[in-house]
Amino acid sequence: MVLYATSRKGQDLGFKPTSAKTQLRYPKLDIADPKSIDGFAKSIQQDHGNANVLINNAGVNLDLEYSPANVKTTLDTNYRGTLNVGEGARAWEMVADRKQMCRTFIPLLRAKGRIVNVSSTGSSLSGYSKELQERFRNPNMTLQDLEQMMIEYQVHNSESLLSEHRELTLLQEAANQGTESRNGWKSQAYSVSKAATNALTAVLARENPGLTINCCCPGWVDTDMGNLMGRPPKTLGS
Fold it and tell me: What's residue 204's pLDDT?
């Protein structure tokens, strides 16, 4: 078995294999960079032909330094970086037209392969308006529906800058085509991005019945992001 533990720097993460038959490799991968994703996928295909499991655990939490730019970065990394949603209306093609992890790797997965998207307790839908909760839980949601919701959220957080940024103006035009909810959103972009991750996981699972696609919440994890949340609980999640 070959385990690829990727990071932006491609550094040795110090994992120890549990079996002599396991190889560990530490390639560079930036899920916000389409070229990085394509290059990594091509190397997997060349070396192995396909893959068994994809675990998406890359993410950022920039809520302590709020800005519309950081909201976009959070969504682009945690949600759009997990899935290529560059489909449908031209406005969101310009925002999210990139080949990203699930879209790139689903064709490379073996039959009965698995995708695990790492979520968070912050993904809870409590605190949203009833209308938004219903939209997140829509069993017939499409990826375009979900991207529409994220566009609306960005507009909700960026209205004061719409006239200054053409990209945000495109977002406004896209949002006007749908039902825009100006209230009822959580303020934390990280939480919204993880709620979106849960929703896209459900859509992908429905669209790919030959694969096992789910998400999980590992609890508190000893990482830089985990330490932003405070001290570890008595029982560690990971």
Answer: 92
